[in-house]
Every structure is written in structure tokens, then in C-alpha cells.
Amino acid sequence: MVQPLSAYLQQPAPPAAPAIDFPKIDKDLVKTDFFKYLGFALQFDPATPDEVAIREKLARIGVGKDFNFQNLSAEQKTAVVQGLQAGYAKVEEGIKNLGTRINGWNVVGAGGDNAFYNGDWLKRAAVAQAGIYANDADEATYPLANTLPNGEPLDGNKHNYTITFAAGQLPPVNAFWSVTMYDGKTQLLIENPINRYLINSPMLPGMKKNADGSLTLYLQKNSPGVDKESNWLPAPNDRIYLVMRLYWPKTQAPSILPPGKGTWSPPQIVKAS
């Protein structure tokens, strides 16, 4: 049963929180009003000691006060737009350096609290862009992949792929694991005929293992055949982005911890013949 805490404790309900008049959010936000919305959001997030200096810099252009893109001069507007574009490019590049490359996967364990980031704004932004609200590594570790081990981009329009976990080498976790398929351009889930967006450990009883006890996943846009559909993870007709999530990874061998340096590594993605 879901119920308010006050009802569970049989106490009077506290007064309702003040309503927040959020500004509208749309696809053009980052082009013009990003800093205005940022200022709005920062009022609910008091600065920590290591954030004071950067908050003061932002305040110089009106962030948190009265920033209005339309009131800027043409030169200032150009500078703001160029700054946003440059910042976004830096964050995208930062994503590539978040973890350790193993078998084509970027093994990331970069989530944490303010003390974990310790003023590393680029890492913090890269984690937010790649997988916002990422857990600490000992809660969940995230191998990410959009290329083969040789750097060739994964493309569901050009190739079919497989991932094979050797017998006894499934992701070592105390909770559960999953492999989720995303569109490589939008990082959104893929519409597909079987409404399957991930393969995870609870699905194992319904999947087929190979004769040697290994488990092969089929990553492709079209069905691999009825006999293999239980192991099929539908791919887009375009660039592919894969995220493996290991929840509560084991600490004893085999283990992915510490991220990218453990005794277990995700198997490489193989181009199907």
C-alpha cells in the first residue's frame, strides 16, 4: 500500500509545499533561455564551498538574477551561443574519457556525490549527459558501447552483431544485470515488433544457451529467426548505443570492481558473419 507518511503515522498532514511556477521547457530552450532556466533551478540548490566562485562568474552575466537573452547585444548573443556549443562539444568529448576501454566497452563507474566530483565540472556534466543520476560504482557499474573493439561504429543498418557470455561468465552481481539498446543518435529506446528494449538477468529462464553453456545475445534490426528470438535484442536501423548495467556488483573475484580494473570484463561485441 502506498500512503502519505502522515497517514501511516496517524498524524496530521503537514502543510502543502508552495507551488513552483516552473518556466516552460522546449527544444529551443538551450538556444536562448538555457541560462535563464539554470538561474531558476539554482535557487533550489544552495552553493557548496567549491561552487561559490563559479556561481559568482555566472552571476556576472545575470544567471540567477535577471538574465534575458533578448536584451543582450548581437555580440553578446553570439558569444553565449558559441559558448553553449563549445561547452556541449566538450561534454560530448568528456563522455569518451569517463571510463576504461575494455573489449570495445567503456567501463564507467563515475557516479557519486559532490565530494566525489570535487569540483570536476566536466566529469559531472559528462555523467549527467551519458546517464543522469548514475549510482556509485559499488551500487551499479555501467559498461557503455557504441563501437567495436577496433573503433568501428556499431550500425544496425549495416551489420548484425552478437555478444556471447562464456559459460559461468555472466555479469557477476548480487542484484541483477541488464543490457539495454538505444538509438545511437538520440539515446532513446528503439521501437520494435516485439516491444523488447533490454535483456536482463530475470529473463534468463526463458533464454536459450549454447551447447557449451554459453549465452549469445543477437543484436540486429531484423529477427534472427524464431528459434533465436528469445535471445534477440532489437537494434535500430542506424547507429547503436548499448548500456550494460551491473547492479550491486560483486566485490570478490570475478568482479568488475574497481571499474575497468577488475577480474571480470564485458565480452566484446562481434560483427556477425
Walkthrough of the structure:
There is one protein chain. With 273 residues, the chain is an alpha+beta fold. It has 2 domains: 19-96, no CATH class; 101-271, Jelly Rolls. It has 7 helices and 10 strands. It has helices spanning 5-9, 29-32, 34-42, 52-59, 74-96, 114-117, 121-131, and strands spanning 100-102, 105-108, 140-145, 161-165, 177-183, 198-200, 215-220, 232-234, 240-247, 269-271. Strands 1-2-3-9-5-6 form a 6-stranded antiparallel β-sheet, with no helix packed on it. A 4-stranded mixed β-sheet has the order 8-7-4-10, with no helix packed on it. The mean pLDDT is 91.
Key terms for this structure?
273 residues, alpha+beta, Jelly Rolls, 2 domains, 6-stranded antiparallel β-sheet, 4-stranded mixed β-sheet, 7 helices, globular
Write the layout of secondary structure elements.
Elements (H helix, E strand, L loop, with lengths): L4 H5 L19 H4 L1 H9 L9 H8 L14 H23 L3 E3 L2 E4 L5 H4 L3 H11 L8 E6 L15 E5 L11 E7 L14 E3 L14 E6 L11 E3 L5 E8 L21 E3 L2
Parallel strand pairs: 7-8
Antiparallel strand pairs: 1-2, 2-3, 3-9, 4-7, 4-10, 5-6, 5-9
Helix pairs in contact: 5-7
In total, the number of strands is: 10
For the record, the CATH architecture of the largest domain stands as Sandwich
Main sheet: strand order: 1-2-3-9-5-6
Strand content: 15-25%
Secondary-structure element string: HHHHHEEHHEEEEEEEE
Radius of gyration: 23 Å
The global form is globular
Helix content: 10-25%
What oligomeric assembly is this protein in?
single chain
Name given to the CATH homologous superfamily of the largest domain: Domain of unknown function DUF1214, C-terminal domain
What is the overall number of helices? 7
- Largest beta-sheet details: 6 strands, antiparallel
The span between the termini is: 52 Å
User: Kindly state the mean pLDDT as a whole number?
Assistant: 91
Structural class call reads alpha+beta
In the CATH hierarchy, what is the class of the largest domain?
Answer: Mainly Beta
